[in-house]
């Protein structure tokens, strides 16, 4: 990961083929310049490259990897954290200029993980942003403005509706996930999550599944297990990782972990299928992807 000097914008280079492993995506856009990346959400594969960028508008428990990367053909990309305040300001300004776009009542909630084709506006804005890296003064003076320009092209692109719902006024699902992510070590119920955003249990359940493809309970379990897997891959022992993500019973944690990944937590920590060096590199890479969005 290479800092560009613009807060929240980094370049990355991967030279190893990494099989898909548990990760937690934060609100971000990942644009691949060369190579291919894959993310799996609830069994659905999202493969993106230089023709499509990935936009994640809320924290998501995924499995992600770089299956085709190699020293000869490294994966090259740009990691762009989505600034909550700037996104919200832009959405308000856009609606003030054109008026809010009303969706039919009862329409589906847009998904929180989407792929969007690179259009000319996005390509030009990204290029103008990355050009600043050669000049510290240009970066300091123009960086925030050009990042804002890139955000604007994202809002106008194919991922725009998903971004608007996550960062605009009607962002109940994104707020409920933020609440959940901050309280993984506590006992959280669907009623707690629904009450946090002022929705009934039934409506919340339906909208949550539309946005994440999972029920709230499935999502909560995946978030806990993915976070635990990342902690164990980084060297934390099984019991400590289980407690840090809210499991009181180590036996329940082991059962659910094995059901999710096909191996026990201990086998995962000492897996022969994932050599120690690969685990270290995977954990290091996805640690970067878990950096919180700027606020």
TrEMBL record:
Question: A single Pfam family, by name?
Answer: AraC_N
Transmembrane ranges, per UniProt, are none
One GO MF annotation is: DNA-binding transcription factor activity
**Domain of life of the native organism:** Bacteria
Coiled coil (residue ranges): none
Q: Does the keyword DNA-binding apply?
A: yes
Ranges of residues in domain HTH araC/xylS-type: 174-271
Q: Which SUPFAM superfamilies match?
A: Homeodomain-like
Q: Which keywords, in A-to-Z order, does the entry hold?
A: DNA-binding, Transcription, Transcription regulation
Record InterPro entries: Homeodomain-like_sf, HTH_AraC, HTH_AraC-typ_CS, Tscrpt_reg_AraC-type_HTH, Tscrpt_reg_HTH_AraC_N
Protein name listed in UniProt: AraC family transcriptional regulator
Please give the organism: Fervidibacillus albus
């Amino acid at each position: 990961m290479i800092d560009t000097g613009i807060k929240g914008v980094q370049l990355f280079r991967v030279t190893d083929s990494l099989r898909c492993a548990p990760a937690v995506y934060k609100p971000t856009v990942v644009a691949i310049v060369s190579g291919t990346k894959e993310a799996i959400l609830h069994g659905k594969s999202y493969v993106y490259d230089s023709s499509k960028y990935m936009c994640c508008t809320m924290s998501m428990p995924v499995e992600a990897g770089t299956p085709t990367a190699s020293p000869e053909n490294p994966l090259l990309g740009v990691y762009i954290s989505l600034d909550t305040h700037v996104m919200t300001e832009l959405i308000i300004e856009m609606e003030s200029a054109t008026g809010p776009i009303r969706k039919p009542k009862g329409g589906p909630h847009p998904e929180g993980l989407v792929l969007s084709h690179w259009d000319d506006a996005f390509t030009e804005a990204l290029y103008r942003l990355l050009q600043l890296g050669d000049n510290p003064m240009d970066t300091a003076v123009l960086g925030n403005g050009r990042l804002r320009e890139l955000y604007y092209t994202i809002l106008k692109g194919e991922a725009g509706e998903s971004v608007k719902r996550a960062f605009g006024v009607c962002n109940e699902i994104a707020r409920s996930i933020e609440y959940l992510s901050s309280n993984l070590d506590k006992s959280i119920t669907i009623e707690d999550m629904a009450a946090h955003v002022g929705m009934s249990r039934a409506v919340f359940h339906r909208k949550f599944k539309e946005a994440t493809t999972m029920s709230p309970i499935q999502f909560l379990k995946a978030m806990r297990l993915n976070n635990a897997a990342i902690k164990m891959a980084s060297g934390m022992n099984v019991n400590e990782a289980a407690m840090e993500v809210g499991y009181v019973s180590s036996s329940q944690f082991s059962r659910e972990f094995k059901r999710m990944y096909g191996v026990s937590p201990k086998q995962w920590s000492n897996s022969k299928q994932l050599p120690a060096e690969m685990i270290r590199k995977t954990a290091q890479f996805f640690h970067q992807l878990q950096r919180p969005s700027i606020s």
